[in-house]
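pinning this so it doesn't scroll away 📌
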Amino acid sequence: MNIQFRRLAVSALVAAALLMMHSTLSIAAAPVVPGTGTWISYVGDDFEDPSWSFIHQFPKSSRENDERGRSPMGRSVNGRWKEGPERGQPDHLQVVPTPAGGLEGSQYSLMMRTLNSGVPGRRSFGVEQDDLIVNCLGRLRSSIPVSEIPSCVARVYLPPADQWEARSGPQFGFRTSASTVATERVSSGFFGSRSETTVEPYWPGMWIHFKSKTNRNVEKDSAFLTVRGDRRGRDFHALDIPEEKFGWWTMGMSYTGDGMVHYYAKPGVEDLTAADYITSQFPYTYRAQRFRTFFFDVCNKDDGRSWSTPFVIDDPRLYLVHSTRVAAIVKRQIESEERRELARRNKKQPKKSARVSKRPNVAQALDGLADPAR
């Protein structure tokens, strides 16, 4: 009787625990609108600084294609952007007047284009891409646990159709970098196997594809947005963008505590709302554990002649629902920068020579008085 009672009690406890876990995951998985919480202004950019510039370090990295990460990496002067090691940064990064219809008060935005994508010095004649990375890891000195509910938002300008690279296919990406811990079975000896746990990076995001009327069976230029990705990591169609909807778009992604990624987009520059929800996914079946950064891709045909479409981005931002830890990091970073700047200024100031008191003797004093010219 006691044994049966204990078994029933254990079963009830297990059922209650499973119910609580399911409820917790259900709450955690509720989509969070990107832009919710505290804006972390220490990362991201508004491009309003007239001295904004990027230091290119050619040849670019191409580790994804040929396992060569070429140091030193390119970076922006303000320290907010960097070249990624997998692929190089776009060849042309220029602050330009914000196109019509942009954010209120925005005077400047960033145009990005590339020509020499792929492996430096070699033409693939296929579609390649370059990346511009927001320097989250470098500035925050840390990745962000998804329990802090990170999200990122950017405004993206789709130019008139006649300015796009005349090629159907992917043209622009807005993506994130995340990591999780993956365990898999690997062979060990002739007949055995063992579990191996690794930190697995992956890159969920959204792509803008062009449908060019230069292609057969395409009567009118248009675009569409795809999401990366589903549980098998595949991109899938999310929404159509007709030519009359080209112009400014607001795009965003958020992560919740269960490791799910949530995708949002809308035409215009207004803040995202729940109505702009597209989908929620566990790409590759991964549950994200840490958010690392976000970045932008531009694609072109790597033939040495075809410039990528001149996309413009503005006001890329990072938000956190739970920001206490990162706010403390930012405070320390700013204080450290202020100390370094003060030390630099003090070093540049000329040292004052020490005063040595030399009291003249009587003869010297009288001599000086006797010759007024001295």
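📌 and the second one:
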Amino acid sequence: MGQEPTGQERSAAYMNPGPPHVTPQRSDPLDETWQSVGQFFAVPQEPAPAISEPAPATSESEPSPPEPPAADVPPRSEEPSAPVPLEPAVRVPTLGVPPYSGRKPPLYPPEPRGVPPVRHDPTAALIPDMVVDGAAYGSLTVRAASVRGDSHRYQSEPRQDSVAVTRIGASGTGTGAPGPDELLLLTVADGVGSAARSHIGSQEACRLVAMHLDAASADLAEALRTGDRNGFASLVEEAVRHVGTLLAHNARERGDDPAAYATTLRALLVPLDPQISTRGFLAVGDGGTALLRGGAWNLALTDPEQGGDGMIDTRTAALPLSHLVRTQLLGPVLPGDVLVLCTDGLSTALAGDAGMRDFLSSAWGTGAAPGPADFLWQLQYRVKSYDDDRTAVVLWEGTA
């Protein structure tokens, strides 16, 4: 039998019990899953910066090698990308490019191009590329426009055509209503292309004829009221003689040859008295006067040659050297009639192109007069080979 431990041995065993007994635990699969998830979302630790060894000391006689040049890296743009354009709150309508005849438009673009320089000729440089005007009295509505031709735009030359819409005669009293003898004066003038100062001649012809017809306005109104053709012709011939004489005088005062001011002149006198349905016509040189009635054109109203094929003829009588004026009484006009007074830039194209006749018949002969901007756009209907200045005054005879 073994000996039992003494009390001293039992006390030592109590103080040193030996390694504890550990019960093995089973691993929990859920804990392993959460540990994997934690590792996935854990912020990675940045490695500690490496401690660089100090560069070995070099002697003064041994220069250090140059540093390599910095790479030319473009700076990073901090600007935000361009915003996507939003749809406009209000869609603005536009007329766009004027229509044209044929399969292709004319070569020149339908817009202003080069302008004349002031240093070469200030009088030419200050003439606008295009003008638009109008008036309305009672049942009468007028639209007028003048546009520089493609050839003049390309050559940076001035518009040689001129246009005027004015009122002559004594005004009524009180409210400013038209007087019984007041007339609308509608005028177009075409400076001859080969005349160096014809752009001045056409402007002055419109101004001077207004002044001299105004002085005879009462007699002109009476001639239209009574249908006095001879009386009307006599009054107009006298006024045109004064215009030619003054135009030549003004040219000489400026040191110019009067022939350099050569211009045609065409006018329509329209009584503001609604009881008078006769219109007075006068012309020096070429151009056109047309009647649009019921959708049909009469191009030979005052110029029988305009009923032809629209061939361009550069031979024409012209102020100030020629005072040969043609006169005619037109009427009686009917409600809905449309009278067109124009330079040959429109009259020859209108005679020569059916597409233009159809377009302008639809634009001007199917209702109320167009607005000024619409009228200007319509007048610019394009036809190949007709690249001269284009000017027109159009009178709508209303029903009021």
